[in-house]
Write a structure and sequence with these properties.
single chain; alpha+beta; seven-stranded antiparallel beta sheet; five-stranded antiparallel beta sheet; 6 helices; 31% helix; 32% strand; globular; binds uridine-5'-diphosphate
């Protein structure tokens, strides 16, 4: 499978067409952005970590009954995925308070919730990805009621699977963002990535951050954090 024309360049990935119109190739970059593109930088080796980690997790989720866009990894940065129309909703699941939740509601980070929370934002960079609820999403025709229900169900399932998976690796899954896509026949599948760019991971013993917050907050040790979480995922310990 080879790349033909570039379809799209995002902040962290490029997407290429292939000879098969139902497939495309995603290519992961080392570029990093935060705060809706205001902060820019690179994290050496990030593209490799995010590509391989996403693919491992997508395969695990498929086995657990969550359909995904994953098809085949071609090399350390490039992966064949099913071509989808991205549903313009970002889904955020939280197990523990952090980031914008702590800020919005004026609470400290680290409060463990009895039940996970779900929130949506409208995937629209010009508007700064505004928060909305499912009624707003319906009003804006971003998805149907059935699609929103399915997206919620899959998102909580992803949380259950990944929370248990990471705990075995000594990592707490604090929160994460998901995106879904629609195949030509209307099937909803998990798309985009699942990586330290899109999840908060805290070491279960030390509480050390093993994710993009180290970049967002200028904490240093960014590359090492990506390497550490990747090592645990690939060695299983
Ligand atoms: N997140 C993401 N992309 C976004 C916004 C959030 O991947 O555009 C992820 C982020 O890495 C974190 C979770 O979603 O794991 C919750 O992020 P939050 O709403 O707390 O926003 P932040 O504090 O990152 O601005």
């Amino acid at each position: 499978m080879e790349k033909t024309v570039q379809l799209y360049e995002g902040k962290a990935k490029k997407v290429y067409a292939t000879a098969d119109e139902t497939l495309c190739i995603v290519s992961y970059k080392d570029d990093a952005t935060a705060f809706n593109g205001v902060k820019k930088g690179t994290i050496a080796g990030k593209g490799v970590v995010n590509n391989r980690m996403t693919n491992m997790l997508m395969q695990l989720l498929e086995q657990q009954g969550v359909p995904t866009h994953f098809v085949e990894e071609i090399n350390e940065r490039d992966t064949v995925v099913k071509r989808v129309k991205i549903v313009p909703l970002e889904v955020i699941i939280r197990n523990v308070s952090a980031g914008s939740f702590a800020k919005h509601y004026g609470v400290e980070e680290g409060i463990v919730f009895d039940e996970p929370t779900i929130e949506f934002s409208y995937k629209n960079d010009d508007l700064g990805d505004p928060l909305l609820n499912s009624y707003h999403a319906l009003a804006l025709k971003l998805a149907t009621k059935e699609e929103i229900e399915l997206i919620k169900k899959y998102s909580f399932k992803v949380n259950e699977v990944l929370k248990a998976y990471f705990l075995k690796l000594g990592v707490r899954l604090i929160d994460f963002k998901l995106e879904f896509g629609k195949l030509n026949d209307g099937t909803i599948v998990l798309a985009d990535e699942i990586s330290p760019d899109t999840c908060r991971f805290w070491d279960a013993k030390t509480g050390e951050k093993l994710d993009k917050d180290r970049f967002r907050r200028d904490m240093g040790g960014v590359e090492d954090a990506y390497k550490e979480i990747f090592k645990r995922v690939t060695t299983g310990e």
